[in-house]
Amino acid sequence: MSKRVGIVGGSGYVGGELLRLLLFHPEVQVTQVTSRRYVGRYIHQIHPNLRGVTDLRFKSPDDLEACDVIFVALPHGETASGLDQWADLAAYIIDCSPDFRLRDASDYKRWYGRDHEAPEMLSHFVYGLPERHRAQLTEARYASGVGCNAVAVILALAPLAEAGLLETATVEIKVGSSEGGSLANDASHHPERSGVVRVYSPSGHRHLAEVEQELGSIPIHLTVTAIEMVRGIHLTAHCFLRSGSQLREEKDVWALYREAYAEEPFVRLVASRTGLYRYPEPKLLIGTNYCDIGFALEKGSEVLIVMAALDNLVKGAAGSAVQSMNVMLGWDETTGLSFPGLHPV
Amino acid sequence: MSKRVGIVGGSGYVGGELLRLLLFHPEVQVTQVTSRRYVGRYIHQIHPNLRGVTDLRFKSPDDLEACDVIFVALPHGETASGLDQWADLAAYIIDCSPDFRLRDASDYKRWYGRDHEAPEMLSHFVYGLPERHRAQLTEARYASGVGCNAVAVILALAPLAEAGLLETATVEIKVGSSEGGSLANDASHHPERSGVVRVYSPSGHRHLAEVEQELGSIPIHLTVTAIEMVRGIHLTAHCFLRSGSQLREEKDVWALYREAYAEEPFVRLVASRTGLYRYPEPKLLIGTNYCDIGFALEKGSEVLIVMAALDNLVKGAAGSAVQSMNVMLGWDETTGLSFPGLHPV
Amino acid sequence: MSKRVGIVGGSGYVGGELLRLLLFHPEVQVTQVTSRRYVGRYIHQIHPNLRGVTDLRFKSPDDLEACDVIFVALPHGETASGLDQWADLAAYIIDCSPDFRLRDASDYKRWYGRDHEAPEMLSHFVYGLPERHRAQLTEARYASGVGCNAVAVILALAPLAEAGLLETATVEIKVGSSEGGSLANDASHHPERSGVVRVYSPSGHRHLAEVEQELGSIPIHLTVTAIEMVRGIHLTAHCFLRSGSQLREEKDVWALYREAYAEEPFVRLVASRTGLYRYPEPKLLIGTNYCDIGFALEKGSEVLIVMAALDNLVKGAAGSAVQSMNVMLGWDETTGLSFPGLHPV
Amino acid sequence: MSKRVGIVGGSGYVGGELLRLLLFHPEVQVTQVTSRRYVGRYIHQIHPNLRGVTDLRFKSPDDLEACDVIFVALPHGETASGLDQWADLAAYIIDCSPDFRLRDASDYKRWYGRDHEAPEMLSHFVYGLPERHRAQLTEARYASGVGCNAVAVILALAPLAEAGLLETATVEIKVGSSEGGSLANDASHHPERSGVVRVYSPSGHRHLAEVEQELGSIPIHLTVTAIEMVRGIHLTAHCFLRSGSQLREEKDVWALYREAYAEEPFVRLVASRTGLYRYPEPKLLIGTNYCDIGFALEKGSEVLIVMAALDNLVKGAAGSAVQSMNVMLGWDETTGLSFPGLHPV
């Protein structure tokens, strides 16, 4: 019998992606979706791609009823305060916000500039990235969200970091406009946002908190740049390897990354010698749960260039959340996540 | 037991979409894909979105073996000459080219400028648009392709034409660059093609032949304009109604179109009073098999504005082909075609 | 000695273009620019392309001082109320708003839904399109703005209309996002606006009021569609010619349009048999004051397809305003308007 | 009296930009333009933005006649072989190709993989970047081209390098499709090129040869990535400063860069605390000769993030060439280069 799923905060972009994925997920039934702003409106009025797919309407979060799994896609800071209510209603809670990503409340304060509202709950959440915490998720009832940029950095650099090969890295991430959420602002006005190459975070991006938690205290210098793109993240990392690293040729890098990811259903290694799509390319991943990773070794130096791409709303948010649910509930991890992406697009 | 499917001419954009749809179709198994140019190459080297999805390689069309259904996605003029070979190999043939769309060989000559190579076969093909020929397809073994622009015009105007309400229409269709196929040329060079609003067919587009065959001899004045878009077709038609038409208010138009399409799984009526997506919008349909249709009645005139949108590679090609197969083989018509599209994108 | 120019309402997109053009105009000196919202801010903080070009700051409109020419680029409805003040300060006033485009106050009420605030001034304004009112502008002290879409329709169809050849026309205009102005809203949010083909005015667009005033009461059915573009207007018109029109071949159309526009510095006829840029193309006109016009005669019908393109912020607004000033002050009409546009772009 | 200018290889994108700039340059007259491919064709047939601007036609390079200045915009490897001919025809030669950028023929062989064809001429050329070689250009008769990516790196990092502050840097450059030239290929096919984030040079880009020549042997790790853009270069550099560098706060960086560039007409420092355009943005520079440079100091590390933007066809090619001509012929350096760029765009 299919599990009943509720989505709290279903009107934003992550909420929309949760709906797109869960409405077609064979093990679950979406029974309720909340939005304080759009109570009573049909879902397809806000998520026009779902026209004809569902007749659900948004309800008030105050009217949420018991179900099996609750997904939360609220803005930063709003999950912690609602947690008690939802814990009474569902056995499983999967958050997409930043609120429960960091294990240590003091890290939260340092990066988000305020006290955590439910520090006692932090230890109940597992970081919702199955590639890193699969075993824990199997046992967990609560999973945290993941930062979309953090996922790219973590998956791209983890093999190097875990092998003790990474001295330091500079990372340039290019992002699309959907990363900024569904609310309009001066910076998102089409004539101003269109065609930009706009460094909006030269350094100190908050997602580094998650990266540090996962990879340890390796110095990672991260810039984030908005480009002409709606969905997608592309990462280019210059990795300074520890001197004397065993990565002398690209086949050594292949071996290291294959060992890390060969069994992962959603991590693909992309580093071809020929063809147009030699390295990871975010446009191919639109709508998919893949994180593609590639690399190239610089000649005559100890620098490895690592590239990665993913869809910020899927692998960087709703897709990893659904994947985490699959793990937590014991289903095939890829269930409901098989869309392969489009070409050309 | 699943049906074995072969794809002839699988390296182009329509071939790629056939693969994307058929590799996930629960009733079929893709057993062979041909490409004269790429014999021996992995499919994902040409269709990079299928990386990790299939290990198939392209084979020579000369090595095609028996199977249950053959899809043909060859350039114009190449299907007619291969038909005999494929007819020996498979019971069902579904073409995507223009070769068997027109019932009358003289029409072919008039619009394509040369004699048809297999005129005796024309009567065996049913025009592969289930919304128009469902009953015939149920009995058919061969289905023709459909012109992507023709599908938009036919579905948008058919209810008016069949009700005898349409005096004449002017139609402006905007198309994306994938409509030009997968081969590069001067006009498709990114710096030249990017950002264009380029009328490439002011009048006399070949797809009008199909429109005339379906809708009769109503004068339709069609321009086709390339815009900044990869996938997608958007149609705006100014329909001059017969004077004294009963379409006095928009609810009359709703009634007419609802009657025509209420049962159609892939035609949606989109004409809202509010919201951002009030009318059909091709970007929402990327990857889907929908044709969305909307309309607005001009005040003080007998002009009805009809709008339509679809994905030229799906509803305008591979999707209608798969839908036709579903009808021909007696499966649920929506099988394998449930991708709802993305938002935002 | 150069003339002193003031710009009222200089923070919007039209204000920005006026500044770009006037700061390099050899006959004038921009001495003051107002913006109620940005008093005291440097101009380049709002118009970043002018960084290093001027040290002017915005001042309050209340502090406006005497000068020779005042350009007004305020939102609809705000010019009429300020007119008395500016008339005391400058001999020449060139408006860019819709407030003084229509000669008849009752037309204003019909199209804009409210009474005109200064109907007694309407007769003092000349419609600011030199291609249509050059002689009057030579004598005028006040010029009105022009509707960007109206300019495209008027210039595209005037030769036909004036020759009495036009029975009726359907017009599809595609526009960029800058036409919506500089203020963000839900519809202009990049993830929602990017890649759209969005019919935002199926019929009854206000600019038709200007078209009717210029071309007479020919039925013109106009839709306006937003596409992926920041600047630019592209028009496709299907013109139903009066039966028995003398336009039997394209050379007849050439003759008609050449007669109309051969001496016009900013109207170019573009209808080539070869090349990528056979017809008008808005991207080539970005930043320029050109309106390019092309045409194609449909075979076997009495339909002429006319195409036109222009930059909505230049020929459709600030450029025509500067051109009008040049005419009004007796300067070479092209002064300050020689930027030829870019390719590729 | 104006100088007569000839352009050799005028049909490509750099040739087109030379024409756009030189046709409006008040000190020169373009008297001849060559193109082997397009002999006899009007210039505006190839450069459609110049329609109505000039009636010149392309002539064969074999028919080149004497003039005052010859600009050469031929593909790599073709300048060296023609040099003797042009030296007989004109006193000044300004090349845009890579052929004479490197002073040392052995560097040429190392980076371009073949022997230089006219090594004896290398010493006659001055690197055509006035910001670096103004004094030499004043005396020079021959100027070399500059690499568009090289200009961005050199101008962005020179102040740090010359002050001995730069230990090493990683540089990520994003480029538009016009950087690939005017000839179509599989990678430039619009459906494939549109929307990409494609690392096409992970390391070892040839323009590093110029960077090394200008900045010395500082290790610079450069990746070049194609993004959705036609014109424009955007650079993000992570600069590892020598430990104990005096750059402790951003005002120190401002001081260093101001000292370097305060007098430069085409280098602007852009690092604002507020506004949408806080850092360099290539779209604002389309058509201009500016190189905008910005920076941000990372807290708690010795890493300075430097950003730069320019138009690859102007400051990265034709604009620097015209600027060099202005210096060489003793004219105001900004002559003909005052276009300020557009906003919005």
Key structural traits:
345 residues, alpha/beta, Rossmann fold, Dihydrodipicolinate Reductase, domain 2, 7-stranded parallel beta sheet, 7-stranded mixed beta sheet
Describe the structure.
Four copies of one chain form a homotetramer. Chain A has 345 residues and is of the alpha/beta class. Chain A folds into two domains: 3-126, NAD(P)-binding Rossmann-like Domain (Rossmann fold, 3-Layer(aba) Sandwich), CATH 3.40.50; 148-312, Dihydrodipicolinate Reductase, domain 2. Chain A is 28% helix and 22% strand. A seven-stranded parallel sheet of chain A has the order 3-2-1-4-5-7-6, sandwiched between helices. Chain A has a seven-stranded mixed sheet with strand order 9-10-8-11-14-13-12. In chain A, a hairpin with a 5-residue loop joins β13 and β14 (303-310). Chain A is globular and about 65 Å long. Chains in contact: A-B, A-C, A-D, B-C, B-D, C-D. At the C-D interface, α1 of C face α1 of D.
Uncertain stretches of 5 or more adjacent residues of chain A: none
From the alpha-carbon coordinates, what is the Rg of chain A to the nearest angstrom? Answer: 20 Å
Ends distance of chain A? 37 Å
Please give the CATH architecture of the largest domain in chain A.
2-Layer Sandwich
| Major β-sheet strand ordering of chain A | 3-2-1-4-5-7-6
Query: How many discrete structural domains of chain A?
Result: 2
CATH uppermost class of the largest domain in chain A:
Alpha Beta
Number of distinct helices of chain A:
10
Tell me the quaternary state.
homotetramer
Beta strand count of chain A: 14
Largest interface: A-D, 44 and 44 residues
Mean pLDDT figure of chain A:
97
In terms of DSSP E residues, the strand content of chain A is 15-25%
State the CATH superfamily name of the largest domain in chain A. Answer: Dihydrodipicolinate Reductase, domain 2
Shape designation of chain A: globular
Find the structural class of chain A using helix and strand composition.
Answer: alpha/beta
Order of helices and strands of chain A: EHEHEEHEHEHEHEHEHEEHEEEH
